[in-house]
Amino acid sequence: MNKRIGFVLTAAVLAVAMLVGALGSGCASKQEPKWPQNPVKVVVGWPPGGITDVQARVIVPLMEKYLGGTWVVSNQAGAAGSVGASDVAKAPKDGYTLLFGSETMSVWQVMDVINLSPTKDFEPIGIAAEGIVGLAVPANSRFTSVEQFVNEAKANPGKIQVSTAGPAAMAHVSGLVMEQYLGTKFTYVPFQGGAPAVMAAIGGQVDATMESVTNVIEHHKGGTLKLLAILDNQRHPDLPNVPALGEVFPEMKPYLPYGPYFGLFAPAGVPRDVNKALLDGINKAFADEEWAKKAKTMFLRPVNKVGDDARKYLDGWTSRAAWLLQDAGVAKKSPETFGIPRPK
Fold it and tell me: Looking at residues 122-145, what average pLDDT do you find?
């Protein structure tokens, strides 16, 4: 009798153990696989070879290095970067379609390009860097100093022509910053991107351009362009002979440095675990020595702001740029329409 009871109990224990094991196995099989499991596409809304594209091709491989999987950069140019961004905003919110964007995201709404906000329609993952803007003129230009350039722009409003990559692009807003705080006045000549704008200055089609130093440094070194100044308060250590605008005009110091931003974005509403993985990856990418080295060689000012810090940075940048365009009479729609507060 006791042996029978013992046998029954042993069998019951074994059955329970097998059931628990089966349940455990079933639970394990239902666990979400580590993200990413599919290729991650990072859209750049500008042509290959531009400053946004070049940065993306530094950051994206680092994301792949730290998060695994396959990451690819896809260029979808058009309409100040908004064509590619629109596709990303409408993509499935699973983290497999991301955007590497730039400062035009902050002025799309007020310039009536597209109704997309960098912090409402996208989840900011990380702001990588700001570009250092340089004021450049043709090699044979009559201007030999930034003082001479500014004085003529004051004395002859609108006479100096500045090439830009389009309304509210880097060169345009840079010029507006100088107009607002130095009393200059320029005529802006739009081109289809930063590279054509630089070439227009080299060819003498315009008097100047205000582009990222990244885009003009080789022309400056090669003698086809002259850098008169950078829009900063301090000279760059690798450009000791190029003055900083705030150094020459101290009244500009509170509004400098000025430069376009660049960073990684996901569509708003990505799952929490995906967002967490992206934040972890971008933190590691920003801490990587490879990024620091590349940023230096590209004349970029690292920002390295992630998550909520990136969001605060963007809100401040958007507020300043949108209201600058509004006060200059350039904005097509008021920032108030989109709930963009005036900067304090």
Answer: 97
